[in-house]
Amino acid sequence: MHNPMHQRHIRRSNFGFIILVVMDGIIHKGKFFKSRFTSLTTVVHHSTKLENDNNMIMPAPYLALLVCILAMLSITLFILLKEAQ
Amino acid sequence: MINQLLLIAYVAVIVILSLKLRQGTFSGFVLSDRNIAYPAVIGIAFTAAYFSAASFLGGGGYGLVAGMPWVVFCAFLHVAFACLAWLMAGRIWAMAKQYDAKTVPQLLEKRYSSPTGKVILAAIMLLLYAVYLVPIFKGCAALFQGLIGVTYLQGLIIAVLIVAVYYAIGGLPAIIWIGFIQGILMLFGSMFLYGSLFSHAGGMQIWDNIPAAVLSMNGLNVPWQKTLGMAFSISLGLLALPDLLIMIFAARDRRVVRFAGVFGPLSIAIYAVCVFSLGILAYGALSSEQIAPFLKNPDGLVPFLATTLLPAGFDSIILLAAISAALSTMSAIVLVTTTSLTSDILRYLRPEISDKSILLLTRTVGVIILLAAAVSAINVPQQIVPLVSVSMGVIACCVFVPLIFGLFWQRGTSTGFIASLLASFFSVVVWNFYGDQLIHPVFVGLICGTVAYVGGSLVSGQTSRAQMVGES
User: Fold this and answer.
1) Cα nearest neighbour of A67 on chain B
2) ipTM value of the model?
């Protein structure tokens, strides 16, 4: 049996994780690839772990896709806006 | 009745805008005199011109057959290539302005001092863009059938009339401004559909209803390698398709291009995630009986979702969005196809021809090309995606190698340019018929084109240096 509170906590932390990656990317000027817990490998690992626990908010490849897209957009936005200054 | 009224309003907006933006000079018609000053307009028109009805219908439904790899590869590669394209767009704009190039073949001709290369590229574009127009017409006519209940043939005629009007009157400015409006419609349409599937299945619970085989990255009924090749070849177009590059040429200055780079990738990301996910999400929102007919004809899924899941009235907006996707792509394609014939090939053969005559020819020939493509669309194969994939992939291959090397490598020569064009074209065509189907022809074309370009440039560069040393 899964604890509903536990599931909710994991879902929240998962959303929080995505926001963290994106904000880190924007605030720290795209250096998040070097950060200790926000590499894309960790993202995939993290989401796969959730999938294995059957507590996923969405399938691991889909979550990884969304995170990668947000990361790519953040980097592009940063470079273009920096060039425009 | 609502659908007919919506269509009339839509056509009225197109006609009014076309008349307001009508052009009297060749430069204004094909380049908007490089005066578009609104980044959002260029960025979203770029997205609208890129995504056709094939992406809306074929791309939306193909997830039913290919499963999760289709969503992941397509969405990822589209956003990645869109980001790269817009990061390079400033350089492309600067090069086009420096050479005063009005078309992509002209840009490469001046970069490599190669009129022969220009004519070869223009001929390839003329042939393959005409092929590419056919499945788009097919999708568009089917959408008119769904929207206002006309026959397929009548749908084709309506599509020709609408595109012909705004192409012939307004040229590129009308294509860009109408493309912007069509792009907004497409974005809303894709988000409505995506949201409707989640809403119908009870929110995030939709993922629990989807079978594990659909969510597996091994692929459902299509091997993941094949899906990757198809996704790569389709999305490569973002980096090198001439009908998209002309939107960048039309920007007023480099600053406009940079800010357009914010709207372009963002709109592509939203659209790609929403549309390419529809196929797998349908497994979570519909019953197996509802899905069964679309496993053989995935193109029918999106109209079915629109009419089944959305409230009355909204389904019309979705169909109009899909029609917009088709019309925006067709109009941009017919412009570059026609200019490749009139401005690139004809002007090469008869340099004394005046701008006024070229403008008249560009208008007339464009309408003739539209008619020819529509007639060819009366009898075409069922599946849209593979058709688009091949013709689009060949053009993208042929432009991609000389464009990218031309921007970042100074040692490229005319010989390398021509060698890469021929190698890309013939390798893709030969591989398409005789090669291993697991490896997409575009991969082969890119490798052959790059090897031929680098080899041809190095050899001809050494020869010319040796000649210069001998003469001195």
Assistant:
1) B76
2) 0.85
